[in-house]
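Retry 2 of 3 after timeout on previous attempt. Resubmitting structure tokens to design endpoint.
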């Protein structure tokens, strides 16, 4: 059964520098811990095992959070702050003093006992080429991650948002997970909208790579983008929701969100498809389904759970799946069974030919 498993936010309890912006010591909590705790208890009604991540963007902050003359702003050749949009300006996080301030902020979040980890948004390198080079930016990000990891407790999780891309190799030893905002590959009206096959390949490769290479325990947040111009329950949205859900279940452990599309943030509909009681995974990840025991379709995966199977098919063609026992398709509600299974042998279901025993 689907549950809300991961939540990131810093709206109810976060840390900010004092107004002078020069001294790295005065970092103060904003908001009262009791408010945050009450909010957390309310969220836990959905899932008492939910993980809470402190959300942080090291690239930019709101224009009033530091004085205009602070040395921590990223500036152009004329000395002006670099506009980041929506009331934000970019930060020069290559400065060791600012890195120390950021590290202190995350360590305080970890020590509060309120958060299980930190979620770094907009982690892709290098969005600010032209202001600092690749090596400088990569090293600055590495220094921040290293400083955090050295000071927080071992179980504190670090997640970064890299969209479809892998993080830099220098960052991998510090990371427990990726937030993959897969984002559409093409705009509305394009013949390949919203996703084309090469983009799906890239998404799969990044997700599978994360499972094999990141620091344990691994917690990925995998997000497919809906088609905003259509109803959330349109046939297209239903198909894409099932694709991302089954991709996550067969290649990862199923922490997935399918949102309402661009312009809606992370807003989403709760689909009945997510209420299927699969139980716990007992089969290995990323296993290709073998048709008739020998033919392997590229892009066709199956994974066994205690209460059923998850099948992910982006092979480009419909394929019949034979199950070792009775089952019900969550997508179609069609009963699927094998005539040579225990149920069929003992007459619980009418005999059928082997060609009809599939979903």
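Retry 2 succeeded. Sequence:
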């Amino acid at each position: 059964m689907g549950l809300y498993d991961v939540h990131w936010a810093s709206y109810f309890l976060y840390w900010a520098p004092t107004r002078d912006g020069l001294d790295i010591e005065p970092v103060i909590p904003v908001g009262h811990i009791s408010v945050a705790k009450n909010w957390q208890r309310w969220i836990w009604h959905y899932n008492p095992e939910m993980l809470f991540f402190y959300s942080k963007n090291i690239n930019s902050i709101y224009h009033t959070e530091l004085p205009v003359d602070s040395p921590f702003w990223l500036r152009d050749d004329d000395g002006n702050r670099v506009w980041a949009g929506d009331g934000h300006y970019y930060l020069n996080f290559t400065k060791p003093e600012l890195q120390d301030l950021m590290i202190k902020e995350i360590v305080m979040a970890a020590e509060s006992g309120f958060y299980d980890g930190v979620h770094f948004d907009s982690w892709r390198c290098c969005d600010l080429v032209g202001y600092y080079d690749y090596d400088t930016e990569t090293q600055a990000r590495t220094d921040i991650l290293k400083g955090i990891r050295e000071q927080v407790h071992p179980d504190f999780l670090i997640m970064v948002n890299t969209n479809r891309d892998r993080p830099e190799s220098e960052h991998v030893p510090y990371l427990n997970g990726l937030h993959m905002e897969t984002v559409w590959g093409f705009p509305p009206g394009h013949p390949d909208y919203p996703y084309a096959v090469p983009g799906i390949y890239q998404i799969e490769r990044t997700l599978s790579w994360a499972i094999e290479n990141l620091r344990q325990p691994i917690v990925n947040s995998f997000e497919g983008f809906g088609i905003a111009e259509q109803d959330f329950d349109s046939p297209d949205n239903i198909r894409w929701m099932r694709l991302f859900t089954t991709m996550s279940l067969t290649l990862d452990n199923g922490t997935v969100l399918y949102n309402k599309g661009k312009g809606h943030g992370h807003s989403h509909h709760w689909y009945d498809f997510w209420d299927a009681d699969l139980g716990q995974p007992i089969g290995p990840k990323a296993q290709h389904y073998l048709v008739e025991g020998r033919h392997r379709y590229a892009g066709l995966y199956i994974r066994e759970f205690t209460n059923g199977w998850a099948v992910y098919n982006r092979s480009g063609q419909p394929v019949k799946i034979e199950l070792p026992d009775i089952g019900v398709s969550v997508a179609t509600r069609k009963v699927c069974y094998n005539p040579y299974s225990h149920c069929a042998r003992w007459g619980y279901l009418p005999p059928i030919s082997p060609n009809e025993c599939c979903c």
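Attempt log closed. The CA atoms of residues 75 and 81 lie 4 Å apart.
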